[in-house]
């Protein structure tokens, strides 16, 4: 299954509260690494995007981002 993460460099993750991800390989010759490109569209419409070695690491980074975001919104 092929997921199209971007069209002309713009994320296709447009529905709020959804995530999209895909695995890809990066490297030269035999030194290839498998990475995950991850996009999450928050319920307020803001996009979180990252590249990490695993999906679990991407979701952990997203959760930290959400926690920091909630802290900023509370101070307003």
Describe the structure.
With 76 residues, the chain is an alpha+beta fold. It has one domain (6-71). The protein has 1 helix and 5 strands. The chain has one helix at residues 55-74; strands spanning 6-7, 10-11, 18-28, 31-41, 47-52. The model has no long low-confidence stretch (mean pLDDT 83).
Write the layout of secondary structure elements.
Blueprint (H helix, E strand, L loop, with lengths): L5 E2 L2 E2 L6 E11 L2 E11 L5 E6 L2 H20 L2
Antiparallel strand pairs: 1-2, 3-4, 4-5
Essential attributes:
three-stranded antiparallel β-sheet, 76 residues, 42% strand
Précis, in short:
The chain is of the alpha+beta class and 76 residues long. It has one helix and five strands.
